[in-house]
Specification:
This protein is mostly helical and 112 residues long. It has a single domain, classed as Monooxygenase (Up-down Bundle). It is built from three helices and no strands.
Length: 112
């Protein structure tokens, strides 16, 4: 059971990484609630302490990776969320969607 749970925790960590990369590239956050990320990040940090009490070492280690990636994501939401998103003069909603995830800034670089 520990190994299966650890795989879910690792899957969560790897699922967060594309969001971290997209935010780093775009240097802005759009349409993300900090409350959701704060909840799951705090839950992840709790799991680091909870899993060892159940003798689930693999889950605890995987939870550490998930809590770490979620913490980076949470910091990016806070950091990039302080700046106003740029709008492109020629692309709808300020983004051209080249990255397929809605976070890639417009490639034409014509800001208004």
């Amino acid at each position: 059971m520990d190994a299966i749970n650890a795989l879910f925790e690792l899957g969560g960590a790897f699922a967060v990484i594309p969001s971290i990369i997209a935010a780093w590239r775009a240097k802005q956050i759009v349409g993300i609630s900090i409350a959701t990320s704060l909840f799951f990040t705090s839950w992840g940090w709790w799991n680091i302490f909870y899993y060892p009490s159940l003798d689930q070492t693999l889950s605890a280690m995987a939870a550490g990776l998930l809590a770490g990636t979620n913490s980076i994501w949470l910091y990016q939401i806070w950091y990039y969320g302080r700046t106003k998103p740029t709008r492109c003069a020629s692309c709808e909603n300020g983004f051209d969607g080249t990255g397929g995830n809605g976070f890639q800034p417009c490639s034409c670089k014509k800001e208004v």
